[in-house]
């Protein structure tokens, strides 16, 4: 993906993400690129400085990513320690808890995409619990 700095005929500045330069050109010719401020279809690319990542920035990014992964691992560990594993019955049990048919408690388990969609449509608060390669050891 390429991020372009864009501006419209009214000089409103904004950004857009495209698969390629040709993708921007194709969408622009079809009037699919519009200014989010005024709705103008007369959008052009603005001059941009290239985005260059230095070694120092990469090191900072690696440290931040490592910290984020460790925090996610900590959250997953705490959930597993303090919640009940209900396996494939997750959707059914989450719905029972939500509607007061079962005692309030933390649970985790597995659910299909359709089950997740249905739970969200019913207003059941859920979130995915990440698994990491070392979880399978």
TrEMBL record:
At the highest ranks, the source species' classification is: Bacteria, Pseudomonadati, Pseudomonadota, Alphaproteobacteria, Hyphomicrobiales
Q: Which domain of life is it from?
A: Bacteria
Entry protein name: DUF1178 domain-containing protein
Q: Which InterPro entries match?
A: DUF1178
